[in-house]
Amino acid sequence: MDHLRRQIISTVLYPRLEFEASDLLKWRSRWRRLTNCCEVISRIVIGASTICAFTGAFMNLAMLSHVAGLLGIVAILLLALGIYAKNESEEKLSQFAGLMQQLKSTDIMADEPPNATGAYASNAPIYVPTVAPQSA
After folding, report:
1. What is the pLDDT of residue 126?
2. Per-residue pLDDT tens over the stretch 30-47
3. In percent, how much of the chain has pLDDT > 70?
4. Across the chain, which distance is largest between two alpha carbons, in Å?
5. What is the C-alpha separation between 60 and 67, in angstroms, rounded?
6. Helices 14-59 and 62-105: crossing angle, nearest 10°?
7. CB contact at 8 A, 108 and 9
8. Has this prediction a pTM greater than 0.70?
9. What is the rounded distance in angstroms from the CA atom of residue 46 to the CA atom of residue 93?
10. Domain that holds residue 34
11. Is residue 34 a part of any domain in this protein?
């Protein structure tokens, strides 16, 4: 029975947990990249919107003022998408930290033999990244 348990842990559980951790970190990276892109593009669009608004007012062109308003809306939407992506990135990091904490607190690793001091190698501290506070 003990052999079966070890076999299931090594062939089913560990590969699944490895995939889960890898997937969480991959998606965290993707959401973070999307956050950065949205913020940069939205700032560029805000600049273009401002230029269009001043030019439209100076030259008395209603169509250019209309374009400035549309660009402002696009910039707001990009910022909203960036905020959503940032929240998703932080959620993936939180899920990863929870997975690492779950691995640390279970006795799954207790099947390995203890080292010379009587401690299990898996009792070594596991690095769990934390979300740094964002400055406003």
Report:
1. 41
2. 999 999 999 999 999 999
3. 76
4. 84
5. 13
6. 160
7. yes
8. no
9. 30
10. 24-98
11. yes
- What's the number of domains the chain is made of? 1
What's the token pair of residue 111? 């099947």
Q: Report, as an integer, the average pLDDT of 16-27.
A: 90
**Token pair for residue 103?**
């691995």
Please give the structure tokens belonging to residue 32. Answer: 């973070």
Residue 19 forms part of a structural domain: no
Residue 104: inside a domain: no
pLDDT at 135 over 80: no
Residue 132, burial from CB neighbour count under 10 angstroms (0-12, 13-18, 19+) = exposed
One-letter amino acid for residue 19 of the chain: F
Alpha helix segments (H runs only) across 9-124: 14-59, 62-105
| 66 vs 76: CA distance, rounded Å | 16
State the pLDDT at residue 54: 94
Residue 3 domain flag = no
